[in-house]
Design a protein that fits this description.
Blueprint: E1 8-14, E2 27-32, H1 38-46, E3 64-69, E4 73-77, H2 88-104, E5 108-116, H3 123-134, E6 139-144, H4 151-165, E7 172-174, H5 183-194, H6 197-200
Parallel strand pairs: 2-4, 2-5, 5-6, 6-7
Antiparallel strand pairs: 1-3, 3-4
The structure holds guanosine-5'-triphosphate (GTP) and magnesium ion.
The site of magnesium ion has 5 residues, from helix 1.
């Protein structure tokens, strides 16, 4: 099953739920702790170096960025969570915006939850995954920055994450924005969640 990204544009940022796009396009959201590599993953998938802004200092603005893919799917870059220096007020804004988004987005067909492969999942990662499964959302966990580990450490982390998060084989992908490892698997997962059968068979 292949899914090719031919066109990717920044659509708009949203700061409040009232600003969510009106179009009925399927959406795939990218969630994860601050600085984990959400924007880098998205850039790798679309094959553009800086469509989504990457940063070495965690971003502080709580906003959701929408990207329009192939004129018919939205990629949704969610603000990172778990940044120690975030104020209580900002955490509250994050919580209500993101929870509201997850609850109100009928068009949200899947969430890619990104976790740094070098560390076991944090309680905030587990909380998000539990929240999403409570709302019966389809989740693909991506363990990123795989290029930073040896093959054996990579396998070890993968096994550990699978156990801690109680995931099966098909819900976990090891990825690197540097080597592009895992890119095709993630794209086919996105295709399977967003495309209609007749389009896939073309
Ligand atoms: N070596 C390596 N570095 C990565 C990878 N993915 C991301 N990075 C680096 O990690 C840092 C953070 O990446 P971003 O993509 O900005 O992370 P983010 O999750 O979007 O960050 P926020 O939006 O601020 O929460 C950057 O310096 C990236 O270059 C990867 O797969 N391998
Ligand atoms: Mg980002």
């Amino acid at each position: 099953m292949s899914f090719k990204i031919k066109k990717a544009l920044f659509f708009k940022p949203i700061y409040k739920l009232e600003e969510l796009p009106e179009q009925n396009f399927p959406q795939i959201a990218f969630a994860g702790r601050s600085n984990v590599g959400k924007s880098s993953l998205m850039n790798t998938l679309v094959g553009q170096k800086s469509l989504a802004k990457t940063s070495s200092t965690p971003g502080k603005t709580v906003r959701i960025n929408f990207f329009l893919i192939n004129d018919k799917i939205y990629f949704v870059d969610l603000p990172g969570y778990g940044y120690a220096k975030t104020s209580k007020k900002e955490k509250k804004v994050w919580g209500s915006l993101i929870e509201g988004y997850f609850r109100n987005s009928e068009n949200l067909k899947g969430i890619i939850q990104i976790i740094d492969i070098r560390h076991p999942p944090f309680p905030s990662d587990i909380e998000l995954l539990e929240f999403l499964s409570f709302y019966k959302k389809s989740v693909l966990v991506v363990l990123t920055k795989a290029d930073k580990l040896s093959k054996s450490k990579m396998m070890e982390s993968q096994k550990k994450a699978k156990e801690i998060l109680k995931l099966n084989e098909n819900s976990l992908v090891v990825f690197s924005a540097k080597t592009k490892m895992g890119k095709d698997e993630i794209l086919s997962w996105i295709g399977s969640k967003t495309l209609k059968r007749e389009i896939l068979c073309q």
